[in-house]
Design a protein that fits this description.
123 residues, alpha+beta, 5-stranded antiparallel beta sheet, 35% strand, elongated
Length: 123
């Protein structure tokens, strides 16, 4: 019986997810996701957690799902996914804004963990 859990996300671009994970200090690799008793499952991106258990992301339809053996994972899945989603959103906003001629001027980290981003566009 598999220990792996799939969690559907609102993430779509796998390259942006990879960049978000690397920005957060995670090591991203290719290969299977490892879980209890040596079980493995496929993922397009694998996050090394420093334990025998990995976290993976794989495309299913138009979105990405996170796959992991949550029984042995020593990371809070909700907090992890929130951090990845926040960084993903930040990178997506920056990319879209720059493609429309905007430039990031300042960013301020707020006490609640949000980011205040001030952008400017020259016309």
């Amino acid at each position: 019986m598999s220990h792996f859990t799939k969690i559907r996300t609102q993430l779509h671009n796998i390259e942006t997810v990879k960049q978000a994970l690397e920005d957060l200090g995670y090591t991203v690799k290719e290969g299977p996701v490892h879980g209890y008793g040596g079980q493995q499952t496929h993922a397009d991106l694998v996050v090394s957690t420093g334990t025998a258990y990995d976290i993976g992301f794989r495309r299913e339809g138009q979105t990405l799902v996170m796959v992991a053996d949550l029984w042995g994972l020593k990371i809070n899945k909700d907090q992890f996914l929130q951090q990845v989603s926040q960084r993903y959103a930040y990178l997506t906003i920056i990319e879209q804004a720059q493609s429309q001629g905007w430039q990031a001027m300042t960013e301020e980290w707020q006490p609640d963990g949000s980011i205040r981003l001030v952008m400017q566009r020259w016309q």
